[in-house]
Structures are given as C-alpha cells and as structure tokens.
Design brief:
The complex is a heterodimer. Chain A is of the alpha+beta class. The longest helix of chain A is centred in the first third of the chain and has 16 residues. The radius of gyration of chain A is 16 Å and the shape is globular. Chain B is mostly helical. Chain B is globular and about 45 Å long. The chains are: A alpha+beta, B mainly alpha. Chains A and B meet through helix 1, helix 4, strand 7 and strand 8 of A and strand 1, helix 1, strand 2 and helix 2 of B. Strand 8 of chain A pairs antiparallel with strand 1 of chain B.
C-alpha cells in the first residue's frame, strides 16, 4: 500500500471513529512518519479532491468528503455519534460511507425550518423534499467550501 | 447545494436571492449519488469519480446536459 493511501485511510478511519478530522501532526504520529511526508501527502490528496485543507492552515482538514472538519448546518447522527457534513449530498454520503443507519438533521434553505431525513436499511425513508443545485458541475471545485 | 421542503420553497429562495432556478433532484436521486460517490470512501481503493464517470453517473439518474458535465466550458440548466 502506498504512503498516500495509508494517509487517506488514517484520515477516514479517524473521522469515522471519532467524528473529528485529524491534523497532519496526528497522522504523522499515528503512522510513525515524518511530518513533512504527511504534509506532502495532504497536498496530493487535496489535488485528488479527497480532502480540502482549512484555509490558512494546511495542517488541518476542512473537508474529507463527505465529512466536514467543522460544524455545519448538516448534522448526521449515527448511533451515539454526531458527524457534520458539507452539504445535503454529503449528509447522505455519511451513512453511505459508514454503511449505517442515520438521521440527517438539516434545515429548509428558504425558511430555515428543520428537515429530518432518516436513512434506514441502506435507503432513505421517503419524504417530500428537493435538492437544488445552484452551481454547475464544472464550477463545483472553484469554491467547494461554499458550493 | 441546498435542501428544501418543496419546489415552491426553492422558487421563493431563488426569487429572494435574485438567482435563476436551476436543476433540482429528489431524495431517491440524491441517495444514488451519495452511494455512488461515497459508498467505498473508507476503503483502500476509494477515489473521486473521474469526469467521464461523473457524466455517466448523472446520466444514469436522468441528469444530462452541460450543467452536469464537469468538463463543460459553458453550460445551461
């Protein structure tokens, strides 16, 4: 297994277990690897769009899609854990990635009213709602944090 | 991408923001995208779909046209 894959798996294993994204230092310690090597791996994983560093602090992760490194308006409860997602797509991506039932707690984009989506037995429980894409696919990564 | 209770809620939001109404998908379609994108994300072989794969994934749930093409220089909804 190459080094970038080990770093990727460590990031995702950490966030899945703890709900928090690890820093470069934490990954370096866990893998017994030089910090500079992990920093370089983070940059390559960013280039592959598998993580987004925190603006102004590349030692921290803002996004390891579908997980968010910071609290957002998209809360995902899985058993006794609470994860945060980057958007409604990623909110469903968390139970998809974890292969677990989940309850997504979000809000209506217009009214701010709570909307709950339950994922049970590998499928969402049907409920009326729609998802609006304001940005075309070609521009998603121009500003992925706000997309 | 934002979640709304209904299409009417999307329309009101777009009017308030001064934005055009763009494509909407339903819960079934979004779940398909979530599973396709992230179902193996915690595994060794996980990666983001390549642009041509994305086009095929979107087309598989009825989303076609330049809006859904990550390589498009121009687009329309």
């Amino acid at each position: 297994m190459d080094f970038d894959t080990r770093v990727k798996l460590r990031i995702y294993d950490t966030v899945a277990r703890t709900t928090a994204t690890p820093t470069t230092g934490e990954v370096a310690t866990a893998l017994h690897a030089p910090l500079a090597d992990v920093e370089a791996a983070f940059r390559r994983l960013h280039a592959k769009r598998l993580l987004v560093p925190e603006p102004g602090d590349p030692s921290r992760i803002r996004m390891a899609p579908p997980f968010s490194g910071v609290k957002t308006d998209f809360r995902v409860r899985v058993e006794d854990k609470v994860y945060y997602a980057n958007c409604s797509w990623d909110a469903l991506g968390i139970p998809a990635a974890l292969h677990r039932d989940a309850v997504v707690e979000a809000t209506d984009g217009q009214t701010g009213e709570p909307i709950t989506i339950e994922v049970r037995n590998a499928a969402p429980v049907p409920r009326p709602c729609v998802f609006h894409f304001a940005v075309p696919a070609a521009r998603w990564w121009e500003n992925i944090i706000d997309t | 991408m934002l979640l709304f209770r209904s299409e009417e809620s999307v329309n009101r939001w777009c009017r308030a923001q001064g934005l055009p109404v763009r494509p909407m998908i339903d819960l079934r379609q979004l779940w398909h995208l979530a599973v396709t994108w992230y179902g193996n994300r915690l595994t060794v072989d996980s990666r983001r779909p390549a642009p041509d794969e994305m086009v095929a994934i979107f087309a598989g749930i009825g989303l076609t046209g330049s809006f859904w093409d990550p390589k498009a220089d121009q687009w329309s909804s």
